[in-house]
Design goal:
Length: 397
């Protein structure tokens, strides 16, 4: 469907090596947009990266030949305190480009939202982010051994008010019972019971009371939430809902014990055994401009807003004397008295302002097909008007 939608656009011939950006219409299962890339500049960047890689390899080879071992890597210095806006944008784009069909191998496959939490005394078993990632890797390994197939899922790391990490996994729970193994926890159990037993065994809190409490309430399987995820756009919205509403933003703030450099959570999100399948077609600059303008107007008509914190200061007098003063609020901040206060406001979201970008949609192939047909109608109308203008200017017989 994506290939068929891309074939509806008037594609340009292959790149001949000239300088300058080339416009492409990108189509994914849950996203459509316009991308402008300077291919010549990209090739030069790739060549520089190859040269840097070769120099680094030569340096490591010299260290190994001289001392018989490599130098110790420098200690980490970055302190991670929260989920960055760039990472959120990358996650939304990735979830909109993923092909989810491998998860639904049968008509009886029903998605669910699986939650994995930690005990009350969570620092004993999860002193840093690497411990959580180790538990996740062990969970994937045990899933494959128990159910005979790899786990296909999208996961997101969040934090509770008490600071404990917990994981959300969008997946299709297997049916039946786990493979019977005498040496494996959860052998022969249905998925929901198997999940509780295996996750408690992986975390393995040393306190028997904490272990028992974690076994009883450490996991959850919500089919109602999974039923709402009917397309890639809805999946992306679910995993970003806590970043869109201030009431849930605390779930993206890293607890104090994990803020030491080297102990951070690492990645906040990811996906397993799923593939991103975007398609793109190179179009003329005029077509790219029409596509970007149409998408921008469509996005504005949706009325999407974003919550922001804007500075306000009383007593200011609007004097737009400098180039960096933009509007009344900027003038008040430049020439004002009193402390600066911040107020939460909701502003309309603007997409593709510079003629490039993307939007999330429910069905990328259908949206791109309608966009191509609309683009063809605009061209046909322009040709008809040009022919009429030429006919009006022609001399009468």
């Amino acid at each position: 469907m994506l290939d068929a939608a891309a074939a509806l656009y008037d594609a340009l011939p292959s790149w001949d090596g000239h300088e300058g950006p080339r416009a492409r219409v990108t189509i994914a299962p849950g996203a459509v947009g316009v991308k402008r890339t300077d291919l010549a500049r990209r090739d030069r960047t790739a060549e520089r990266e190859q040269r840097r890689t070769r120099r680094r390899v030569d340096e490591l080879a010299g260290q190994l030949a001289e001392r018989g071992e490599f130098d110790e890597p420098p200690p980490p210095r970055r302190e991670i305190t929260g989920w960055s806006r760039k990472s959120r944008t990358n996650m939304v784009k990735a979830l909109c480009e993923i092909d989810y069909l491998p998860m639904f191998t049968s008509a009886a496959a029903v998605p669910a939202m699986v939650t994995l939490t930690y005990p009350g005394d969570w620092l004993t078993v999860a002193p840093n982010g690497q411990a959580v990632k180790t538990h996740m890797a062990e969970f994937y390994h045990r899933y494959r051994r128990s159910w005979g197939t790899d786990l296909l899922c999208v996961w997101k790391l969040e934090f509770q008010r008490r600071g404990a990490p917990h994981l959300h996994l969008m997946m299709v729970p297997p049916s039946g019972r786990a493979h019977s193994r005498s040496d494996a926890a959860g052998s022969g159990l249905e998925f929901k019971h198997w999940l509780s037993v295996v996750w408690a065994d992986i975390v393995d809190h040393p306190d028997p009371i904490e272990y028992a409490n974690h076994l009883a309430a450490g996991t959850g399987v919500d089919y109602a939430e999974g039923a709402r995820l009917q397309d890639p756009r809805r999946a992306a919205i679910y995993f970003t809902k806590h970043g869109s509403f201030a009431a849930k933003e605390y779930q993206n703030i890293v607890p104090e014990p994990w803020r030491t450099p080297g102990d951070g959570p690492g990645r906040f999100w990811g996906y397993r055994q799923l593939t991103r399948v975007p398609r793109s077609v190179e179009v003329s600059p005029h077509d790219a401009q029409l596509v970007a303008r149409t998408i921008r107007r469509w996005a504005r008509a949706q009325g999407t807003t974003r919550e922001l914190r804007v500075p306000r200061q009383s007593g200011g007098r609007p004097v737009p004397a400098d180039w960096h003063v933009i509007g009344l609020a900027g003038a008040q901040l430049v020439d004002s008295r009193g402390p600066v206060r911040h107020r939460r406001v909701r502003r309309r979201v603007e997409r593709l302002r510079g003629g490039a970008g993307w939007v999330s949609v429910n069905d990328g192939a259908a949206f791109a097909s309608q966009l191509a047909r609309y683009l063809g109608q605009l061209k046909e109308s322009a040709r008809w008007q040009a022919m009429r203008l030429l006919a009006d200017r022609a001399p009468y017989d």
